Amino acid sequence: MKTVYLCDSSIEGILSGVYQAWSSKKGHDNVMLRLRDDGVTMELFCQYEEVSADTQKADKVITAIRDKISEEAYEAVYKAALSNDSGRADKIYRFLIHGFRTGARIVSMLQIQAVYDVFQMCRFVDNETHLLTGFVRFSEMEGDLLVSRIGPKNDVIVLLAPHFADRLSGENWVLYDTNRKKAVLHPAFRPWYLTELLSPQWEDKMRKTSDEDEYEDLFKRFRKSISIRERTNPVCQMNHMPLRYRPYMPEFSQGLKDV
């Protein structure tokens, strides 16, 4: 009977699941990792076990990956864990099975399905991160606080934070992921940090940005100034600026016609 380990969707949760499955000694073909909230129906003739996120177990797996495979392999695992692929936990596990057998060369062996799967997830995460570095917009709140709301498919907020910490190092800003209810907070001239404890009042406050936001007005005026009505090409626009990003961009908010 196959044992299915149900783990948390965080990197710590997934690697805790890897640790539990590996140390069970049941054989790799007899175990499987799944996320608790993956929405997949439970299978017959399978034994399901809950795995709690354990920082110590996750750290042991991370150390083993870095020492016995490579730093590049760990970076691939970390990015894959940020993917929205519901099967990412087991795909990471299968990748590590090959990685611990092969060593550092595993990252270039894309002919292996498990390796290909992980690097496909990494590619999607990297692509979305790259796009959002250009599409993220900040609005000004009271107290000179800059706020940006995003709704990415993948959990890329921690990959975006260093980019904006470098470019807005002297500003107080918040980058909020509306899909996962987590935020990066950056005090001016200080390191940023991740939090998942924002109160409903904070969420509501971030929606109600100032009506006289200079940044929003700037983006609207810029969009209007460069547009040429006779050359409007909706298909080209959607290729360069997908519709799913526009609800979070002030130049596409209401009031553009009045600028």
From TrEMBL:
It comes from the Bacteria. Residues 88-251 form the DUF4130 domain. InterPro entries: DNA_repair_put, DUF4130. Pfam families: DUF4130. This is TIGR03915 family putative DNA repair protein.
